[in-house]
Amino acid sequence: MDDESISKNTPPLRIAARVLREALPLRWKTYVLSIVFMIGAAGFTGALAYSTKLIVNDVFVAADASAAYRVAGIVVFVSLMKSVFQYGNSVIQTMFNRSVANDYQRLVFRNLLAKDIWHFDKKHSAAQMAQVRVLGSAAGKTVVNFSNKLPTDILTLIALFTVMLFQDPLMTLVSCVLLPVIFLLVSNLSNRIRAIANAETELTGAFFAIGSEAFSGIKTVKSYKLEKKSIRKFDEALKVLEKRLLSIAKVTSATVPRMEFLGGLVIGLFVVYASWQTITHGKTPGEFTAFITAFLMAYQPAERVSHTWVELQRALIQCGSMYSLIDKPPRRPAGGDRSLADVLPSIRFDHVSFRYSAKAPALRNVDFEIQPGERVAVVGKSGAGKSTLVDLVLRFYDPTSGTASIGGIPLTEVAEDSLRDSIALISQDVFLFDGTILENILDGNPNATEAEAFEAARLAALDDLLAEDPKLEKVVGPNGGALSGGQRQRIGIARAMVKRAKIYVFDEATSALDVENERRIMINLEKMKDVTVLFITHRISTISFVDRVIMLQDGSLVAIDTATAIETSSEEFRRLFDLGA
Questions:
Q1: What is the bridge-based pairing of β-strands 423-427 and 375-379?
Q2: Among the listed residues 202, 255, 211, the one whose alpha carbon sits nearest the alpha carbon of residue 232
Q3: What is the DSSP string of 118-164?
Q4: Quick one: the chain helix, strand, coil %, rounded to 5?
Q5: What separation, in Å, do the N-terminal and C-terminal C-alpha atoms of the chain show?
Q6: Residue 50 to residue 289: CA distance in whole angstroms
Q7: Mean of per-residue pLDDT scores for the chain
Q8: Staple partner for 124: which of 51, 209, 438, 449, CB 3.0–4.6 Å?
Q9: Residues 158, 532: Cα–Cα separation, whole Å
Q10: CB 88: neighbour CB atoms within 10 A?
Q11: What tens digit of pLDDT does each residue of 202-218 get?
């Protein structure tokens, strides 16, 4: 894509120029065909207007019945060709629109997936998808309007004004006086549409976010009788969106009545002028019929030009938002080029601190080292910094100060792909894609064989599902909705197992498991050699399987030792796990 940077203050025509520069060269063959259809549609529209002169003069004024067949043939041929070219042009418009919109929707989607975690912290997933749909569609509309719709209507106006000029140059010039007036009206409407279109994408995103939030949390909504609250929030979002769309509709709709009034004014003047010319200067009725037909036919393309131009301002605002999104540099610098393939999976935090924006530090001067092959639990009350520690290990964020490293290599120097290949995350709220169990397990390692996937399923204690469905072809439903919480977590663990990572991070990943299944998984983990495991947990049953415990409190490391030693020395630890005195 183009390297030209776009900001909120970029002039609309520069935004349009960038979209066209990016989209048209890839579709030049289609565009050449589009030009042929545009010229054909415009030319035959002008010819149809001119044919009315032949109808009136050669048939009715001359009272020549034989000429009627010739003129009728001409009219039918011109109408047929006009329809063929208009049909082809309409198909080209749709092809352009969908092709460009699809490309930019893919681009926005890929760009969003590549964004830092920061970008997703406060924005609903439905709002993100609304951006994909709305911004990509705006690019398609921009290309179609600039490269096809506007040129088609402008060429049609040129053809019709040429017919008018040949019939009566003076009246054609009088009609042209309206052009500056129309331009001023459209310019005023364009400025107003730009002023009110800026927030439309955000409002659409909020509309989708509130609706999808209610549906995705339907059990919570129903169990806590939150239907009225959800409806109220949806109604409020709908009212705001409706108000904004109504404001846009009022502006865009204003073009039609204003154009109709100006057109009526010209027709009234022309009737008086035509009668005077016919009576005093011998002008033929056919000339004036052709002129007024061309003028009336010019009304629709002129109206479409003004309407398209106003609508275009809305699309350009959204294209500007799209470029601001995709051009924005990442908040977190890209990784280096070093690999973790040949290093041992030790984890080192060297006086690491981290804060989210201007908030109080989430981690304060945390310093520890985990040896390769260790099983370590990270414990602490809610808000102690456990999840932040995991996010730094995964390099979803970079430390505000200090250094996080694996195998002695700072994470900022590690290639992104190598880091992702080396760590497997299993979270409490396991996310599953709508597909089969086997497909979800293989997401952990697309290169794994089915045999390896079944072995991972056994290591994750999925024997019950294997007995019920030996090929694991059961469809899990959206986010695993067809499964129990424990089954979802075990599938998430199997997905991690098949990855064959160096480091496994269990973020409350056994919270929905019974003690027996948890024990089996822990025993299987112990059999995996040269693998380092981090457990974020509140379960005392998990603590019994670890070598050491890291205890956090208010973002600070307050203890790192064996579970037995910390239990003896820390009242906070005993209270955390309800171990008594």
A1: unpaired
A2: 211
A3: GGGTTS-HHHHHHHHHHHHHHHHHHHHIIIIIHHHHHHHHHHHHHHH
A4: 65, 10, 25
A5: 65
A6: 9
A7: 83
A8: 209
A9: 74
A10: 17
A11: 556 666 666 666 666 56
Beta strands in 358-440 (DSSP E): 361-370, 375-379, 401-406, 409-410, 423-427
Q: Which two tokens mark 552?
A: 């956090």
pLDDT for 534-544, tens place per residue? 999 888 888 98
Task: Report how far residue 12's alpha carbon sits from residue 312's, in angstroms, rounded to the nearest whole number.
Answer: 9
State the Cα–Cα distance between residues 285 and 167, nearest whole angstrom: 11
**What is the distance of C-alpha 175 from the center of its chain?**
45
Angle at 103 between CA 99 and CA 106, to 5 degrees: 140
pLDDT tens across 11-51, in order?
888 999 999 999 999 999 989 999 999 999 999 999 999 88
Residue type, 260: E
Q: Enter the pTM of the model.
A: 0.74
CA 559 to chain centroid, in Å, comes to 45
CB neighbours of 382 closer than 8 A, spacing ≥ 6? none
Sequential DSSP letters for 266-292: HHHHHHHHHHHHHHHH---HHHHHHHH
What one-character-per-residue DSSP string does 166-224 give?
A: HH-HHHHHHHHTHHHHHHHHHHHHHHHHHHHHTTHHHHHHHHHHHHHHHHHTHHHHHHT
Q: What length is written for the chain?
A: 581
In this structure, are residues 368 and 557 in contact, taking their beta carbons and an 8 Å threshold?
yes
Domains of the chain: 12-327 (1.20.1560.10), 347-576 (3.40.50.300)
CA distance 139 to 108: 11
CA gyration radius, the chain: 35
- How many angstroms separate the CA atoms of 185 and 306, rounded? 9
Q: Residues 186-192: contacts with CB within 8 Å, 24+ apart? A: 186/255, 186/306, 186/309, 186/310, 189/251, 189/252, 189/254, 189/255, 189/306, 189/310, 190/309, 190/310, 190/313, 192/251
Burial class (CB in 10 A: 0-12, 13-18, 19+), 208: buried
Q: In what order do the strands lie in the sheet with 361-370?
A: 361-370, 347-355, 401-406, 409-410
Q: What are phi and psi of 86, to 5 degrees?
A: -65, -40
The span from the CA of 550 to the CA of 536, in Å, is 10
For residue 479, the SS3 value is helix
C-alpha–C-alpha distance, residues 552 and 537, integer Å: 12
| Half-sphere exposure (Cβ direction) of 543: Cα atoms closer than 13 Å | 22
- Rounded to whole angstroms, the Cα distance separating 309 from 445 reads 50
Beta bridge partners of 475: 436
